[in-house]
Recover the amino acids of this structure.
């Protein structure tokens, strides 16, 4: 079994020497600090990089940022090599961010009910025997009474 080229993941990621960092730490440094040093704050805020073997794959937020990185790919490749990374090539891919969705219906205030409709709801609530329906009708009728909101 000692001749097998396969190793367990925990052995691969284990910190064998006192000064070395594990693979996970190196990827985090490349994604945040080192990538910002190589590309600058503006481009690094719109991209992230993943290393696969000797290839760097850059994911950009939009086609505009992908084009910007692609234009400077050789410069970035040389800068990565100068920082001590062993990289043969850089691929640039477009990966759109998930749009931030807001709950617009929760932000809207309900429209005011005409005063006549509010009175009818209030009168109906008095005749209803179901407590929950009665409370709901009374709550609705308040939207006609509070037209100042």
């Amino acid at each position: 079994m000692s001749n097998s080229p396969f190793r367990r993941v925990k052995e691969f990621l284990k910190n064998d020497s006192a000064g070395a960092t594990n693979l996970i730490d190196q990827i985090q440094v490349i994604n945040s600090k080192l990538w910002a040093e190589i590309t600058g704050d503006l481009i690094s805020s719109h991209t992230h990089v993943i290393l696969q073997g000797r290839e760097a794959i850059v994911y950009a937020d939009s086609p505009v940022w992908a084009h910007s990185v692609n234009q400077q790919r050789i410069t970035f490749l040389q800068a990565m090599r100068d920082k001590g990374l062993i990289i043969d090539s850089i691929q640039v891919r477009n990966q759109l961010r998930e749009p931030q969705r807001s709950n617009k219906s929760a932000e809207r205030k309900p429209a005011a009910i005409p005063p006549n409709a509010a009175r009818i709801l209030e009168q109906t609530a008095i005749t209803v025997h179901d407590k929950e329906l009665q409370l709901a009708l009374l709550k609705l009728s308040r939207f006609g009474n509070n037209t100042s909101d």
Confidence is low (pLDDT under 50) at residues 15-21. The chain is about 50% helix and 10% strand. The domain at 20-94 is CATH 3.30.300 (GMP Synthetase; Chain A, domain 3).
